[in-house]
C-alpha cells in the first residue's frame, strides 16, 4: 500500500500536478486500496491544520514582507556598506551581509531571493557580470532558512512532534549559520581576488559605522525581541511571530515611513497564497502518514536501515545521500511533510540528538533549493534577473560546496548544532 501511495504521488508530481493535490490523490488511492471509508480523510485533514503553532508560518511571512515593503532592504545595504569598505569583492560581501540581515527577519529563502535579486543585481552585474552576481544572491538567499527565524524549521518541528521544539530548532541554526556566513564572505573575496575584479566601495569610516549602527539599531531589535522572547519563554513561536508583525508595522509606518495602507492587501495576499500551499500539503500528508503508519512503514524502514548499519554516523551519511537526490527533484516543503515522520523516529532509535538530526535534515534540503533541476531559488532568481540557468548553476557551485562543507562539519561535530540549544535548556 505504501508503495502505491508513493508511486501515485511521484507520478502525478512529475506530470505537473501541484504537489498538494498530488498528495491528496495519493492519499485517496491508498485509502481505496486499504478498503477504508474515504470519509476518514476529512477529520484527519481538519485536525492536521487546526494547529496554533502552524499560525506562526503566515505571521512570519507577513512580518518579512512588511519589513521589505517598509524599506528594510535599503537600510541593510547601507549598514553593510559601512562595515565592508574598499576591498575586492566588497559589493558581493555587502550582498551576503544583507542576506544574513534579511534572514534574521524573514526566514524564507524564496522571498529573500526575490528581494535581493531585484534590489542588488542591477548594481552587482556592473562589476561582476550577471552570472556571478546571481550566484552571490542565490547563496545569500539560502541563509534565510538557516538563520532564525526559519519557516523550514517550523515545518520540521511540527512534523517531528513533541521531541523537537521550534525554539530549539531556531537555536540549532545559529552557529552553523555564522559558519556559512563566514564561508560565503571568504568565497566572495577569494573569487574576486582570483578573477581580479576591481576594488569597490568607500574607505571604512568609524563615523559612518556609528551613524549606520544608530540608524539601524531599531531594525535589528526585531530579531532580538522576537527570537529572544521565544527562547526566553516570554511567548510562544506563534505569539513571537505576531509580535514581529506588530513591530514591522510600527517600523514601516513610523520609522522608515515607507509602508502605506495600500501595501497591506498585497502583503496579506502573498502570505495567504504561500500559507495555503503549505497548509494543503500538511493536511493531505496527514492521511498519507496515517496510511504509512498502519502499513508499518516506519518500522520496516527502521529495520532495513539497522540491517544496513548500526553506526549512527553511517546512518546520517545515508540520509544525506538520500536527501541530496530528493532535494534535486522534490520541493522542500513536500519533502519535510512526507519524510520527517518516517525518518525522525529512526534517528531517535539510533540515539541521535533530535535537534542535531533536525538541523542536518533542514540543511540538506536547503542545499537542494540551489541544486537543479528543481532548485526553487534558482528559478526565482532566473525569473527576476533573466540569467541563464546554466550560468547561474555554474556560479553557484562554490557556494553549494561551502554548504556541504558545513554540513559535513556539523555531522562530525554535533556540538556545532547542539551546544547553544543545550546551554539554553532545549
In short:
Helix content is 78%, strand content 1%.
Distance between the termini: 38 Å
Helix content: over 70%
Indicate the overall shape: globular
Secondary structure tally: strands:
2
Q: Which strand order does the major sheet show?
A: 1-2
Could you name the ranges where pLDDT drops below 50 across 5 or more consecutive residues?
none
Mean pLDDT: 85
Largest β sheet strand count, sense and barrel closure:
2 strands, antiparallel
For the CA atoms, what is the radius of gyration? 22 Å
Tell me what the structure shows:
The radius of gyration is 22 Å and the shape is globular. Helix content is 78%, strand content 1%. It is mainly α. The two termini are 38 Å apart.
Spell out the key features of this protein.
426 residues; 20 helices; mainly alpha
Secondary-structure map with pairings?
Elements: H1 2-14, H2 19-34, H3 41-49, H4 56-69, H5 72-84, E1 87-88, H6 90-103, H7 109-141, H8 151-160, H9 166-172, H10 174-194, E2 199-200, H11 206-232, H12 237-255, H13 263-294, H14 297-308, H15 312-329, H16 332-349, H17 354-368, H18 376-385, H19 389-412, H20 415-423
Helix pairs in contact: 1-2, 2-13, 3-13, 4-12, 4-13, 5-6, 5-11, 6-7, 6-10, 7-10, 7-18, 7-19, 8-16, 9-20, 10-19, 11-12, 13-16, 14-16, 15-17, 16-17, 17-19
